[in-house]
Structures are given as C-alpha cells and as structure tokens.
Amino acid sequence: MSHVLLMTRLALRNVRAHLVKNLVIGVILAFGTTIVVTGASLIDSLQIAMRKSITTSVTADLQVYDATARDDLALLGDMNFGGSDNGEIPDYATVAKVLAGVPEVAAVLPMGIGNATVFGANELDRTLESLRAANRSGDSALQATLLDRVQRIAGDIRPELDRLDTITSDAEKLAADRAALDRVLAAGFTTEYAADPVGTIDWMDSQVAPLATDGRLAYFRLLGTDLPAFQKHFPRMQISRGTVVPDGTRGILLNESMVEQWLKNPVAREFDAIEKLIDTEGGTIGESGTLYDRVQRLSRQYRRVLYQLDSAEAAELEPLLRKELADDQGDLVALLKAFLLFNDENFKARKAFFYQELAPRIRLYDVNVGDTIPLRAFTKSGYLKSLNVKVYGVYRYTGVAKDDSAAGAYCLIDMPSFRDLYGKMTDQQREELSAIKGAVGAAELTGGSIEDQLFGGGGSVEVEVTQTATLESLDTLSFGRAEDRQQQTFTQAQIEGGVATNIAVFLKDPAKEAAGMAAVKSALDSAGMKLKVVDWKSASGFVGQAAVAIQVVLLIAVIVLFLVALVTINIALVLATLERTGEIGTMRALGAQRPFVLQLIMLESQFVGVAASLFGAGLAWALVGWLGKVGVPAGNDFLSVLFGGKALYPSMAPEHAILGMVLVLVVSFAATLYPAVLAARVPPIVALQGKE
Amino acid sequence: MSAIVELTHVVKDYPLGKLTVRALHDVSIAIHAGEFTAIAGPSGSGKTTILNMIGCMDVPSEGTVRIDGTVTNTLGDAALTDLRLNRIGFIFQTFNLINVLDVYQNVEFPLLLQGTLSASDRKKRVEEMVEKVGITKQMRQRPNELSGGQRQRVAIARALVTNPAIVLADEPTANLDSATGNAIIELMRELNARDHVTFIFSTHDPKVMSCATRLIKVADGKVQ
Amino acid sequence: MLALLFSSVLAFAAPTPAELVGMLTTIDDRQENSGDYKSLVYIENKQAGKSDLVYQAVVYRRDADDKLIILFVKPQSEAGKGYLRLDNNLFMYDPAVGKWERRTERERIGGTSSNRQDFDQSRLAEEYTPAYVAEEKLGAYAVHHLKLTVKTGADVAYPVADMWIDKATGNTLKRQDFADSGRLMRTTYYPSWNKLRSESKGADVYFPKEIRIIDEVEKGTQTTVVIQEVDLKTLDANIFTKAWLESKSR
C-alpha cells in the first residue's frame, strides 16, 4: 500500500518535473487518440451509412447467385459495364423454397440483372413516325403540324449542306441531298404529300431523315424483380413521377438519376450540369476554361430545342426571346444561339427562362411516364430481342439528393419482361433450332485447312440446278400480332417460376450477418445447390470493395502513425532515462527494487497516456460532434453512394473512445517498456559516483 | 561482541577486457557496532571497492563479507537491495536527494519502501528525525531550495530514519565548505555518541579522520 | 514478233484494267436477274462459348430498283423480323416493338457475321475499282487474285477487298474484306455455284450454293449461309415497302 502511495506520488511528481518532455509525448498521444477515435467514428458511420444506402436500395443483407459464375456479382457496378456474367439460377422458386426454410431469413426476392438499349431516334425520325401514325389514323390537323416541323428541320439542315461544299468528296451525293431538302422545302410539298402520304413518308425516311444526325442511343441497366415485393422490402424507394406498376402487369420504373443523365434534353441537362459546377466547385464561366468551353458547345446545340418547335410555338417564342435578349437581332436560330451563349451575370436568368418558357414547349425528356419504350438486348442465346414496355413511373431513393447519380442506377422491370430479354432458351425452342438445322444441315468444317476442305477436290464449281419448289407460299406467311405472342399479365407463380440471376436475402437480424450467411450457405449446400452467398458489401461490387479499401488505407495510416509515435516516444523516454540514472541509482542504493523502478517509469508514462488519451478523445468527440452537425460533404457521385446522401453525418459511440484510448495506452505502454527496462538495470553504484 | 561488518580475506577482481584487475588483495576488516570508522586512502587504492562491499552493492570474488550477520557473497540483486534498505543508511558526497520530493518526503522515502510502519508511526518517525538533524523549519521545502549543509542534514535524516545497523557515508563533507562540513561532522559524532549509530566513512578529509574513533588506511588494494 | 510475243505474255500474266472490270461485270451479270429474285436461305452462326444461332429467312430482290427484303421466318421467336433496303438505307423492323430503325452497312444480319451485301445483288463493277495481284492456286483451282478498292459514294461495309476468281469458270471462290485501317475483317468462301435458268433474263442466274464467312475480328465465329431455293418469278411491287413487312405480323 505504501509502495503504491510512494510510486504514485513519485510518478505524478516526475510527470510534473519533466513537463516539457511529457507534454511532447502527451501531444503525440492525444493527437493519436483524436485520429483513432475520429477515424473509428468516421469508418463506423461510413459503414452504417453505406449499409443503409446499399442494403436498403438494392443488395439487401445477402445475395445468392450462381457459384460457377464467371464474374463476381457487382450490383452497384464494376469496371466492365454490361460485360459481366453472373451466371444464372435456373429456377428461382425452388431456391426460394429452400431459403424460406432457413430460420434466420426474413424474406427473399428474385432479381435479374441485364442491360438493354433504347434507340433514341433523331428528331426527324420521330416526327416521321408520328406522321405515319397520324396518317394511319387520318388526323389531318396533326399531319399538317408534323409536316410543318419536318420542313422546319429541313430548313435548318439546308444551309449546313452548303457549308459542306468545300470539304465533300462526293459531290453527287451532296447534290442529291440538297435536291431532297429543296423538295421538302418547296411550296408545293404539302400538296405532294397529300397526293401520296405513305410514299412521301417512305421517301423522306430514306432520303431526308438520314441527313439529321441528332439521334442517340440510351443504355438502360435493368433490374428485373417482383416489383410489388421490391417496393415493400426496399421502402426507401419512392415513386417521384407516375405510379407503381400494377400487380401482375408488365412495366418499367425508370431511375430518376438515370433519366436525368441519359434521357433529358441535352440543353436542359447542360443547364443543370453548369449550374452544379458553379454551385459546387465555385467556378465561373469567365474564369474556368472548362465551363467556358461548355457554354460555347451548348450554343451549338440549339437544334435540340429548335427541332422540337412547330411554327406556332416558334412564333410565340421569338418575341419572348427578343425581349429576354434585349438588343439581339436576327431570326429564331440566331436568337437561340445567342440565348445559349450566356455568361456569369445572366446565367441564372437564362436558366429560369429556359425552364419557364422553352422547356414546356419541347420534349424535356426523351422518355416520359406513360410512354411505351422499345427495349432491346442480346439474349443469352445470342438473338436480338426487343420488347415494348410501358413506363409507369420514375423512382428515386429517399435520403439521396435529387440530382445525385447513383452508380448502378437500375431501371426496375417486371420479372417476365426481364426473362424475355434475358432469353433463356426453352427446351422447345432448342428442339426447334435443331430441327431447322437438321432439315438444312450445312456440313461442319472441322479441323485442318478450310481451303483444303472446300477447294481440295477440283472439278467444276458450277452446278446446273432446276427449281424444285415454288416459294409462293412464303409470300403469304403471316406470323400474327407480336403483342399477341407476348403474355401481358402474369401470376405470382409466374414471377417466381423461372430464371433469375441472383436472389436478395433479408435477414431477421441484420446485425447477425455472419451467422445468417452461414445458415443460408449450409441450407443451399445441403439442398445440393451450387450457389454462393455473399454479403452486401461484396455484392455491391467495386463500391463495396472501395469502401473496404478506404478502411484499409485508414487502418494503415493509423498503424503508421502509431509506429511513428511509438518510436518517437521510445527515443524520448530512453533519453530521459539516461538523464535520470543518478536519481534512479540513488533510489536503488536506498533500497528500491528493480521492479519498483520499472513500475515507476511505466506508471509515469501511463499517467501521461491516460491524460493525453482523455484529452484526445474529448477533442475527437468535439470534432465528430461538429462534423455530425455540418456533415462531411460527399464531393462526388461515388462518395454520395457510399455516404447514402450528399454528406456523411458521423456520430461517436463510447466504444470508439474506448477503442482509441485503449490503443493509445497500449502504444504508450509498448513505447515505455524498453526505457523502463533500461532504467531498472541502472546499478546502485552510480549513486556513489558523484552524479545527481 | 561480534563485528557488525566483517570482511574476511576479501579478494575482488574486475574484468578489464581480457585482463583481470585485482582491486582488493586479501582484505580483512572487522567493524563493531557503535564505532565511528574512517576508511582513508588515495583514489584507486581500493577504498571505493571496500565501500561497495560494505554497502552491499557488490560482492567479493573470494573471501566473505558479513553485514550484520548476513553473508552477502551468494546473494542476488533483490536480497542485496533488501539488505541495503533495512540494514544500511547511505550518505553521499553529492547528497543525492530526490528533487521532486520535499524534505519530509525524502526522509520518508526509505520507510515507504520498507512499508512496515503505519502512516502515523511513519509521520512520527520522520518528524523525529527531521528535528534531530535540525531542519524542521525546512520540512516542506524542496531540496533545490536548501543550502548544501541543509541538504546533507536531510540526507543524514534519510539515512537514519530506518534505524540501520550501519550508516555508510561517502565523502560527506567534500562538497561543503569547512564550517558547514564541521557542523555535519559534529552532527554525526553527536548521533554516534548519543544514539550509538555505527558510522563508516570514506574520506580523505583530515578533520573527518581526526574525529574517527578508528582509521583504516587502504593502499594498493590492501589494508595497512 | 518478239515484242508481240512479249506483250502477249504480259497480257496473259496481267489482265488489262478493262479485262478486270469485265471479270467483275461477268460475276455481277451472272447473279443478276433482270426480273425479280426470291430465295429461301438458311443462316447459321457458330461462336465459341455460345449456342448456335440458326435462322431461316426469305430474301426478296428487285435488282432493277436496288431493293431488298430479308424476312426471317424461323425460328418462331424470330419470325416477322426483317430488313428492308431502300435507296441506300437499310432499315430493320422488329414486330415485337413495331418499330423501324435505320442501320448501317456493317449491320450484322441477325447478330451473325453476315451483312447486307451477302444477300443482295452483286454490284462489284459498280462499287469497286479492281487491280490485278497475281495468278494463284486456291486448293485444286487456278485463280485470279484481284484487289478491289471502293469507289467514291458506294455504300459498302468494307472499303477494300481481295478476291480470288476461278480461272476456269469466272466465279468468285474466296473474298477477304479489309477495314480502312487495313485490318482484315472477314474471309468469305464460295465453294460452289448453282446455275438456274431464268425466263425473264433468258439466261442462267448464278447463286452460291453456300457462303462460309469466317469472322476475323471475333475469332472462332463462323457464319454459314445456305441458299436453299431460288425462285425467279416476278414479285408483287408492294413487297418492297415498310407496310408489307409490318403486315406480316398483324
């Protein structure tokens, strides 16, 4: 007892006596604590945010997929967009039955990952298509409007062709193109059209439409699923426009950020993007080269607006633009170009004008709620498959800012439509193919040189044949309505029976992820299913891996920091011990045992350690508290996925402080061990050697 | 009456590289309780080696050293330390007070290491010793606030507080002016006379030697 | 005398440009029918690691108007899809979505390595300028090796081609197509040619019995086109319209 008293007293006094040294050590340790505690809080908060962001948007707690898949499942995207092969689960229902029997599992959901394209026909194509439909339905007023739009577009392209004069290598083609446009722009064209609408449209299709070059292809990442169940299990998903897809009906829900990024009118999108750059990065059009270039480019995009206006709309718009631009002259084209060539002063006003006056008069989005869009994909068997799907709505996730584009922004589609595009061949189809093959049978060229096999024989290559069958019956073939071949509604059993690429698994207790994973795995194994189970982090793909990488980097940083601290403290203490040999020798001479000296030195540094770590933890608490209030801004889209929003709001738990303090005390303990042993080895004789 | 310190045919060799240096050649000394002994000799004479043996900081190569009945030859560091704590008081040439402790705490230090006395007994004992050496007024001061003589008085109090069998004083006056030195010598003589404290000095101060009841001269590792 | 002999040797070794164009014209003329042309073709695509693609299609040609339709009839899932060539435009129709789409000359027909030219009328003389490379042997056959370069304004999949023409019969046996970069894109073999008497032409119409296409870009991919039947009767004019192709799936 008296030992402890003496040691404590001595230690405390020594700490005070060697204030500068201990302050230096204390600051290092306090800094270390702050870093560790803050870091642990951030990592944990990030994990929680990520978990929330990822598991509640698409991955669920666990994912099950084909164990023989060539690529790892990467639901939030990987480096090879669209090229990954996650294998398949031939029949979802049988796997779901096994999973439902696992007590840890709360729910399962079928998923089908795929890609599709939607051809964004150019504006002229689109107009001609509408014209064709209007002609079929006999709507003459609409035909007149559309024909007017065709002429407006032709009128805009015409001067472009004159500019090509000097650079063209094919004068003949240029002349033909000019003639075609002149024909459309001629006064008598409407009469010409009226005389033969179908022929004229066909002619425009092939002669005029190719001259407009503004078509583009949109890529869709599809997630086929049981849509009502998806909405139930991922409650963060919210319909921002339109409605949900009615139960048992085919349909697609577009992802809002995907719509904004891919389907919005390019001029509108550019307005949004420039505003975002100015707001988030503080750039100005005057000073930032990139922004300046973008504005220059934007003014050349005026056609994206112009082509969508008919005469009446153009007539309304011209005076408005003239008023907005005040001193600008010229026709609508000149006005539009000038309007889009904005600067820092008038940007806000121009954007407001755009959305107020221009946007309502154009197609702001290539695809709107209620449209039926043609999705196209290459099926697993290699055939090109197209499918019309109705867009019921646009969805987004709550907690994610509106314009944050999330990696892996899926468009949600019903399971039967996914399966149609996925195109797994049925046995019946396979038989049909082999029947065709068997009936015609092209000899297979196997091994050796193809040329030897084909041309080795000699003899004449010409063969006289006579017609053996007339092919008349082919002309009258009819395949029936394509829509009729496609089932429009379906039952729950049809959703579940059939192929899926992966299965989302929700656990009853998400905190017991590892146990749940093991239970699911063993259930699948004992059912003899060659499927693998991964956690949400791994299933999310490179986002999850990047998050792990961030943690590893932070961990390495902490380790390096501690090593530096350890070495620094160690050196400082060794030097301090050398200075104290006289004092230590005296204590030894007076009868202090070696362990006493050892403990005394250790105690001293632990006092410093405790004080410093308390201080550091306090500092971290204040820092994390502050960050929790103001938020760590996500900076880019990738981080906003990790953060589950525009910013991360970290919070500190007691275990973070404990972790940090324990770690720091361990470090200070380790750093003191060697100097303390050195001190304990100081012989009592030094007391007699006249040192003090 | 048996000797309280007894060196019998003590030989001490120190390794010096590959050579062995013999610091003591067959030294035999016996010091009895209550004696006021001075060990004198020039530096390198073996005086310090003898002091190390008596102070239980070293053990002989040959022969035996017996301190208050305990043979130290085969003792390990812990046992030697115990012996120092309980049987020997030390007074150093450079006072060797613990700077972070005040006078009272410095004196209390060995008692706390021993851990045998209760807090109240300890207090009584410390105060008694402090009074005995005449520094009661400075009891709550730090060593660096004291004069050399006062410091050595604290050291004497610290050496005596455990009632050691012997007090080993290594050149106690070397760092003091002669008046102060004399006073310290006086104090020790007084303690010797009144309390029968056994003092063993190493010194080359003639004044100290003149006060000694016994003088042991050492030269070339031998007692003369 | 010597000069005459020398020039005739030269003439034998390297045909004149006019003679080369003549070779191409012969090939074109043989395959052309002054009336219409209809054939039933089988298309098969083999690709490493994937299941085979198999189609049966009807090809309608009105060579006089440069019109072409490829209508898929089998398998059932592909029936009704088709291509229409009108005035240098290639349109694709998919009844599943009821939409037409303009495609390029390099369109891989039905996802195979074949392209529009494999099914269409031969227009070599019109589209390419020939040059003579050498007389060579191809298997057991003696062949003329020609280098063809696309003429300005012609719409073809690849701008440069090498052709190996049977010396004995004047039929194409092998062809290699190159991209602008000089990269070999595909090799095509025509192992035998059928001759069918045409009433409207008053002569034989030639068509390859089968076409073997080796994809030189995607290694291991090979497409075989077998022309099963040819019918040279006059076709209804309304066949070569979008409406007709659409009507097949109504």
Helix percentage range of chain B: 25-40%
* Cα separation of the termini of chain A: 28 Å
* Head-to-tail CA distance between termini of chain B: 24 Å
Strand order of the largest sheet of chain B: 6-7-8-3-9-10
Strand content range of chain A: 5-15%
- The helix/strand class of chain B is alpha/beta
Q: Mind telling me which CATH architecture of chain B this is?
A: 3-Layer(aba) Sandwich
Which stretches of chain A are low in confidence, meaning pLDDT under 50 for 5 or more residues running? 401-405
Number of E-state strands of chain A: 13
Compute the number of helices of chain B.
7
Determine the most extensive contact between two protein chains. A-C, 67 and 86 residues
The arrangement of helices and strands of chain B along the chain is EEEHEEHEHHHEHEHEE
Helix run count of chain A: 28
Tell me what portion of residues of chain B adopts beta-strand conformation.
25-35%
The rough form of chain B would be described as: globular
What overall form of chain A do the CA principal axes indicate? elongated
In round numbers, the mean pLDDT of chain B is 89
Number of strands of chain B: 10
Helices and strands of chain A: which structural class?
A: alpha+beta
In short:
With 692 residues, chain A is an alpha+beta fold. Chain C has 250 residues and is an alpha+beta fold.
Describe this protein's structure.
The complex is a heterotrimer of chains A (692), B (224) and C (250). In chain A, α4 packs antiparallel against α5 and α11 (266-281) runs antiparallel to α12 (289-299). Chain A has 28 helices and 13 strands. Chain A is of the alpha+beta class and 692 residues long. In chain A, strands 1, 2, 3, 4, 5, 6, 7, 8, 10 and 11 form a ten-stranded mixed sheet that branches. A two-stranded antiparallel sheet of chain A has the order 12-13. Among the domains of chain A are: 2-53 and 544-685, no CATH class; 65-119 and 493-539, no CATH class; 123-211, no CATH class. Chain A is 57% helix and 12% strand. Chain B has 224 residues and is of the alpha/beta class. Chain B has a single domain (35-57, 77-223), classed as 3-Layer(aba) Sandwich (Rossmann fold), CATH 3.40.50. Chain B contains seven helices and ten strands. In chain B, β9 (214-219) and β10 form a beta hairpin. Chain B is globular and about 50 Å long. The model of chain B has no long low-confidence stretch (mean pLDDT 89). In chain C, 16% of the residues lie in helices and 46% in strands. Chain C is globular, with a radius of gyration of 19 Å. Chain C has a 13-stranded antiparallel sheet. Chain C has helices spanning 2-13, 17-31, 116-119, 124-127, 242-247; strands at residues 36-46, 53-62, 67-74, 82-86, 89-94, 99-103, 128-138, 141-150, 160-166, 172-178, 184-189, 193-198, 203-208, 210-215, 222-231. Chain C contains five helices and 15 strands. In chain C, a hairpin with a 4-residue loop joins β2 (53-62) and β3 (67-74). Residues 1-11 of chain C have low confidence and may be disordered. The interface between A and C is large, with 67 and 86 residues.
